[in-house]
Amino acid sequence: MATKHEQILQYIESLPIGEKISVRQIAKVMNVSEGTAYRAIKDAENKGYVSTIERVGTIRIEQKKKENIEKLTYAEVVNIVDGQVLGGRAGLHKTLNKFVIGAMKLEAMMRYTGAGNLLIVGNRTKAQQSALEAGAAVLITGGFDTDEYNKKLADELELPIISTSYDTFTVATMINRAIYDQLIKKEIVLVEDILTPVEKTVSLKPDDKIETWYEYNKKTGHGRFPVIDSNLKVVGIVTSKDIMGHEKHALIEKVMTKNPITVSGKTSVASVAQMMVWEGIEMLPVVNSSGQIEGIISRQDVLKALQSIQRQPHTGEKIDDIITRQIVNLSDDAKETNVFRCEVTPQMTNQYGTISYGAFTTLITEAANYHLRQQKKGELVVENMTIYFLKPVQMESIIEIHPRILDVGRKFGKIDVEVYQNGVVVGKAMLMVQLIDRY
């Protein structure tokens, strides 16, 4: 039976797009406390079912797919620009396709403005009216209001009119930055993107017998299974090691590992990879906020995802991408040694014009990663880094990075990195890394 929290989430998900909800309303309809209703609404917001806007409230929005994450809803625009909704609140859930800056004559402006657009304009009421009639929402900059006719028209057409105190250039920059940040999020692979869903997950119950494990093992070829109770909550994990030496008629709950490590769907695959290596885990149950199983994720799933990430083109370039793009490998397919050259660009400096601590750690990490990956032909994550010293390196200087493997085993490695400028050591660090086998 579903918990109250899950029932509230199901109720919110069943509401029509654009419906306004409140803590008090949910508490009354679902017969729960306001605290329970508040937590469920916040969870729904995290899942993308609703959006909360200051001075407006919480509304049901359409959950965006990951491939369309670069598109914003008008509700999100209100939050981005700290705006005030003047009219058309019923359309806040809608998604905008593009935004148009109204800095031209009306006739020319309308050639670029159409349905699903957002016109960014000042106190030009005629332009605002024409945009609404063309099916576009309006964002008024400079803190200006609009006339009553436009407000009524916005309500009739369910197209928001939003007012913000920021100027047009600032607003365009803020929206662009929000879209850019979402593009970066799109590239970060989460557990929910690659998990095996609960419908396809083979699991055991605490009162099953060990002979059931043997049946599933023969059928699937796997040796690790989550153990779930009647409420679909994960209560244990059972492996071949757990059942070893026990009779087939013994109950699973007697041999299973209780309180197993679990992850949520919003955990990044990189974090899961580190967890699996550190704990020596082959499979992890994926659970929701109530501890109920949503699926499982295996080491093979993680490896495939990590390899896929490396092959993907990056559409949202992060500061790490900008830094590592400067790195050039001076060694011609060298196996034992690699030397990397890099120019210290203005983006890599601190307020004093010398290489920043963050840029330095990114450079040595990427160089060490490449060098060890070339040696082991596997995947790795940095577990610990110790920087012994870093001398000031001026902007536009050329530095050379020399990674050297001190020790490497099946699961762990130790790398020494020295950084030179004009033959003089300007930085030195030690990295401890975890290695992930390909199989």
From TrEMBL:
Where does the chain cross the membrane?
Answer: none
Looking up PANTHER family in the UniProt record yields: CBS DOMAIN-CONTAINING PROTEIN (PTHR43080:SF2), CBS DOMAIN-CONTAINING PROTEIN CBSX3, MITOCHONDRIAL (PTHR43080)
This protein is called Transcriptional regulator
Which residue range or ranges hold the CBS domain? 195-254, 256-317
Query: Mind listing the UniProt keywords for this protein, alphabetically?
Result: CBS domain
Q: Does the keyword Protein transport apply?
A: no
Q: Which SUPFAM superfamilies match?
A: CBS-domain pair, HprK N-terminal domain-like, Thioesterase/thiol ester dehydrase-isomerase, Winged helix' DNA-binding domain
Q: Which InterPro entries match?
A: CBS_dom, CBS_dom_sf, Diverse_CBS-Domain, DRTGG, HotDog_dom_sf, Ser_kin/Pase_Hpr-like_N_sf, Thioestr_dom, WH-like_DNA-bd_sf
Instruction: Cite the PROSITE patterns for this sequence.
Output: CBS (PS51371)
Asked whether the keyword 4Fe-4S is assigned, the reply is no
Query: Could you tell me which species this protein originates from?
Result: Aeribacillus alveayuensis
